[in-house]
Amino acid sequence: MRAALLWLGIALVVLALAIAAIAYGAVPLSAHAVIDAIGGRGDAVTVAIVRTLRLPRAVLALLVGAGLGMAGAALQGALRNALAEPYLLGVSGGAAVGAVAAVALGASGPLMLPLASFAGAALAIGVALGVARASGGRADPRVLLMAGVIVGAFANAAIMVMLSNAPPNAVRNALWWMMGSVADAGWVTVAWLAVYVALGGALLLWLAREIDILSLGEESAAALGVDAARSSRSIFLIAALLSAATVAAAGLVGFVGLVVPHLVRSVGVRRHRALIAGAALMGAGLVVAADLVARLARPPAELPLGAVTALLGVPFFLVQLRRLS
Amino acid sequence: MRSVAAGHLLLGDRCPFLRLAPRLRFLAILTAVASLGALTACGDAHRAAPALEVDDFGDTIRAGTRTNPARIASLNPATTELLFALGAGPRLVARTTWDVWPDAARAVADVGPGLRPNVEAVLARHPNLVVLYASAENRVAAEQLRAAGISVIALRTDKLADFVRTSRELGRAVGESASAATVIDTMQRTLAHVRAATLHLEHPTVFWHVWDSPIYTIGAGSFLDELLTIAGGTNIYADRTEPSPQVSLEDVIARDPRIILAGASGKSSLTSSPLWQGVRAVREHRVFVIDTNLVGRPSVRAGEAAASIARLLHPGIEL
């Protein structure tokens, strides 16, 4: 009962944040004007600000946060490691290599950049999985973790080599992308990311019982009839592709996948079905809140979203760490 | 080409894709999505507006842009400066943080950055026309502004030829074509004057210092290389095609430039660095300071900029 009330409260906070994301921006608008504009009435400029800029932006922030939160919760459980998160496992590195390569080759338009970053992330995921599989298929999640981290290190080196020789325009474009942003949100991006988050989220929720079993350790998993190596690989694949989709839509939004699952655990959630659902909600809230801060801190300039998520998330995380120890 | 193709395809007043059999229509829609140009052709023909000119993003400049906009947002220091020169300054309603020349530009509302501009802040100024710098990261902003029903022109302003083209295009868009012709003429005449004055002088070799660590200079792709040539200098890195190539100190020493041009802070860091003592021009005190504000971009003042460089390279020249 108390738990239900708590989650209702959190859901209301996220809803309030989403409403704030539509009501507030670089330009002050009255509540009345915003409500009219949502319905398509009133001044054309206000309608454009609310409907073509703020609405898709708020929805995209919710989706990115939900996707990263779920991916982090699933990975930390399946790999039995509190530091496992999509970005640590080569996804961000692979995506960044794809994006920087596209920029360096001059294909930096709003169509090519997401495609290239997704392709890069998928490649990194493939390499990490291939290495883990070739290591003999033993159910040791550390192999998968190591493979991901090493692929990420290689990706970082590749990015530095490409950027060191790139013209200043390309470097600037790539840096912006690596700092993360939902400013370019449009309904097309929102639509395809929604498909990814819905599908990926549904699959992870469906596999939540397996993640529960995996998190008990490989022997318990074997005793309960779960092939730990296979199962953790497929969860890794789903979570990584889900985060790759968020990266393609909004660039690198760091720290959400790492911090949010811990926040959900800190309110007493242990079972992965609830953990994944809770991480979706809190992740959505964190990214919407961060984007609001990014827009309102010093308008009309914006702060990089990926930095603000960390600035907001880290203090929470540190408080939780102190409480644990 | 667009209007001819569209006119040829059109039977009656409707878009050709809608007249095909359903199975073909699916294919046609796929093709149309693959080449948005075809869709544009359809829409344009439908409205019977012969808007054929395109900006530097390759987007069609709409006919509405030509109707002498009363409220202009210019998100590029080069175009802001140009609009003032064209006499359209009083119609400017938004600029970027960096548009501070001429002084009157400071009175225009500052809407933040010009690369990835804050579209919301731009919209709030109610512009009829937005002038953007045609860089890849501004594409989404251009689409968002057009979606809000505002005319957008994205212009590259990287080389002297761009300046001529940009002046002509902007002059037409804001109804100041006559001023544009004068501005272009004045700049080209000053440049021709500087070129003529330096033509028969010896052209010293020059290293243009842009940045220290890593060392960046100017290549043939930069308009600064164009200015340097007109001012009677020879860029030692004219063989590099990029606008701002990265080079090594060893190579600078090997190419042994006669003169080094740098900004004020660049000069002090070069002359105080023991490493740069390896370059003869530094040892022999031939590092000259350029006014980076004046030569920073291809603008109305390009002629003046070329003259200032010529005076550094050829002391005593009459200009």
Please tell me about this protein's structure:
- The complex is a heterodimer of chains A (about 325) and B (about 325).
- By secondary structure, chain A is an all-alpha fold.
- Chain A is about 75% helix and about 0% strand.
- Chain A has one domain: Orthogonal Bundle (ABC transporter involved in vitamin B12 uptake, BtuC), CATH 1.10.3470.10.
- Chain A has 14 helices and no strands.
- Chain B contains 14 helices and ten strands.
- Chain B has helices spanning about 1-10, 20-35, 35-45, 75-85, 120-125, 140-145, 160-175, 175-200, 225-230, 250-255, 265-270, 280-285, 290-295, 300-315; strands at about 70-75, 90-95, 130-135, 150-155, 205-210, 215, 235, 245, 260, 285-290.
- Chain B has a four-stranded parallel β-sheet with strand order 2-1-3-4, with helices on both faces.
- In chain B, helix 1 (about 1-10) crosses helix 3 (about 35-45), helix 7 packs antiparallel against helix 8 and helix 8 (about 175-200) packs parallel to helix 14.
Tell me, what is the CATH class of chain A? Mainly Alpha
Total domain modules of chain A: 1
CATH fourth-tier homologous superfamily of chain A = ABC transporter involved in vitamin B12 uptake, BtuC
Spatial strand sequence of the major β-sheet of chain B: 2-1-3-4
In round numbers, the mean pLDDT of chain A is: 87
| CATH fold description of chain A | ABC transporter involved in vitamin B12 uptake, BtuC
Any idea what the CATH architecture of chain A is?
Answer: Orthogonal Bundle
Helix/strand order of chain B, N-terminal first: HHHEHEHEHEHHEEHEEHEHHEHH
Largest interface: A-B, 30 and 30 residues
CA-based shape of chain A: globular
Report the total helices of chain A.
14
Radius of gyration of chain A: 20 Å
Into which percentage range does the β-strand content of chain A fall?
A: under 5%
List the total number of helices of chain B: 14
Mass-distribution shape of chain B: elongated
